[in-house]
Amino acid sequence: MIGTPAYMAPEQELGQLKKESDLFSLGVCLYEMLSGGNPFAPGANYLQKMRHEFPPLSQAKPGLPKEIDRVMATALSPMPLQRYSSARALLRDLQKILQ
Hints:
Blueprint: H1 10-13, H2 19-35, H3 46-50, H4 57-60, H5 67-75, H6 87-98
């Protein structure tokens, strides 16, 4: 297994790397940049990520618009096909929020 566990998509932890796995990792990085912390508890494993349990970003960082929570829920979806299809699609949604 190659990667940093705190940033790995659930399927990556099972050895099933997909392009959507990178988008999950990007979502973790984005959450961390905006909140100052990882969305998942330290040492979170596959099952914890599959439960999709993390504090909404607008709660982790008060002052951010609630619309950011939908973006993060999509980026960090445990199901690869429910994530953004590209980084460009994620960026489009972020730009809508910032306007």
